Amino acid sequence: VTNATLHNEDEIRRKDVRAGDWVIVRRAGDVIPEVVRAMAERREGELESFEMPTECPECGSAVEKVDDEAVARCTGGLFCPAQRKQSIGHFASRRAMDIEGLGDKLIEQLVDLELVQSVADLYRLERDTLAGLERMGEKSADNLLSGIESSKRVELERLLYALGIREVGEVTAQSLARYFGNLEKIAAADTEALQQVPDVGPVVAEHVHRFFQQQHNLEVIAALLDAGLQIIEPPVVRTDELPLAGNTYVLTGTLSNMTRTEARQQLEALGAKVTGSVSKKTSALIAGEAAGSKLTKAEALGIDILDENGLAELLKSGE
Description:
The chain is an alpha/beta fold. The protein has helices at residues 3-6, 81-92, 104-112, 127-131, 138-150, 156-162, 170-180, 183-188, 191-194, 202-213, 215-226, 260-269, 293-301, 308-317, and strands at residues 23-28, 32-38, 63-65, 72-74, 153-155, 230-232, 248-252, 273-275, 284-287, 304-306. The strands form four sheets. Strands 8-7-9-10 form a four-stranded parallel beta sheet, sandwiched between helices. A two-stranded antiparallel sheet has the order 1-2. The protein is globular and about 60 Å long. Residues 1-17 have low confidence and may be disordered.
């Protein structure tokens, strides 16, 4: 277990956490591991106490930790090469822009050689430049350029997710896209308007609003559009008017007629909320084959359980 994991646990004080220490970890909640305690009896000799750095080891910017959050963050933003690499990797990932051939090693080269300063620079890369990079060649360069070109037509929700706005995952990005309908309206919305979107609270609204208030973010979006990015805008949908609005479902196990991702998308299209953990607020658990602990918990809480036929009827009833 790394020190980065240890500093998140309230039960272990920083002075008790040592580099190379042994700890007991258990499953907490749905999938998140929890450090229960340090195993002092397994220590061999004196160990150095861990102290959270005050400066980012990558760029030297100050490290910031909000009092009510466990995570500590570099304040360097895209000035920090490490954050730049991560943002590009996220932007290119399968559930975002889905740019095939753009792996971590290549991203490191592009950033280290200052060929890519922001995600918009990906759309300016040239074949000869790429082909000359380590472990690249003409065929690899052509494949990457093809993947970049294919990504130019993108759904609004995928673009929002790809931009890496704090607290905006796939579900929130989809909700924003369906509520506002286009990027311009989202960018112009104040925090009050953003909170009208289902499941968008004051914290998320503030992150979204702040993102679109920062000039460098607007410049990156403008550069993407100038590079030929075409945003596919969804029809505006008020999810509170959809047939499954107000209902929360959890998917578990293996479905035979569709993937869980497809099931989630169909449920969300009908206004439902799909979460990863069972609680008293869960309307029903949809259980496929080899359902595990979520099924056990749903049964203990008296939550309705639907099999795949029940899911099909639920989706049909919402049409």
